[in-house]
Amino acid sequence: AARIIQNMDPTADPCKDFYQYACGGWLNRHVIPETSSRYSIFDILRDELEIILKGVLETSDRGDREAFQKAKILYKSCMNESLIEQRDSLPLLEALTMVGDWPVASADWNKTKEPNWSMEEKLSIMNSRFNKRVLIDMFVWNDDRDSSRHIIYIDQPSLGMPSRDYYFNGGNYQKVREAYLQFMITIAKMIREDKNVSKDDSFVQEEMAKVMEFETEIAN
């Protein structure tokens, strides 16, 4: 009750400006940070919780249960920036190897990889190893017709960009679409360079344009 009263402005006339009357105290004591588009009690709680979690994750994991140990290991791996810089693109290249490599980042993918490449196998690896749904989303959830059991659901996955509008609309959507394509081209060039594959910018642009066209068809 004290917090509610603190967030009010009882000096304001509720019949003239009810918003100021109800929220004036909050507005006077809080400024929206430059990094945020909104600021509420839930945002404050989230910030406070992140500080608490940071403290917990930085404590020793000796004697912790396995789940806590895994969380602390993940946190430490993200904070070890020197090792991240040292490893450079190696983790990404290893991941690409697991999923059958990337045609645009290979000199002879059609000859060396395609004969033994199975889409079903690679989709399952993407799902199980990387929690990434491509083309098909598959998950286990409560059965809508019988809540006492769980069943496998198959659905459409999310798109590379936030919504279908980004693939077809003009204006800012088109700017994002162009930047999205350029981002794909840039990453492909970087990986080719790291794998010591010969430079071929026109090939990369053609391949990424095909990827964009394919993703647009899926969005449609």
Order of helices and strands: HHHHHHHHEEHHH
Q: Rg, please?
A: 25 Å
* Proportion of strand residues: 5-15%
Output the strand order for the largest sheet. 1-2
Tally of separate domains: 3
Continuous helix count: 11
Helix content: 55-70%
- Kindly report the average pLDDT value: 92
Query: How many runs of DSSP E, i.e. beta strands?
Result: 2
Instruction: Tell me the span between the first and last alpha carbons.
Output: 51 Å
Could you say which overall geometry the principal axes of the C-alpha atoms support? Answer: extended
Question: pLDDT below 50 for ≥5 consecutive residues: which ranges?
Answer: none
Find the structural class using helix and strand composition.
mainly alpha
Biggest β-sheet strands, sense, barrel: 2 strands, antiparallel
Domain Peptidase M13 N-terminal: 14-220
Organism: Spizaetus tyrannus (black hawk-eagle)
InterPro entries: MetalloPept_cat_dom_sf (IPR024079), Peptidase_M13 (IPR000718), Peptidase_M13_dom_2 (IPR042089), Peptidase_M13_N (IPR008753)
GO molecular function: metalloendopeptidase activity
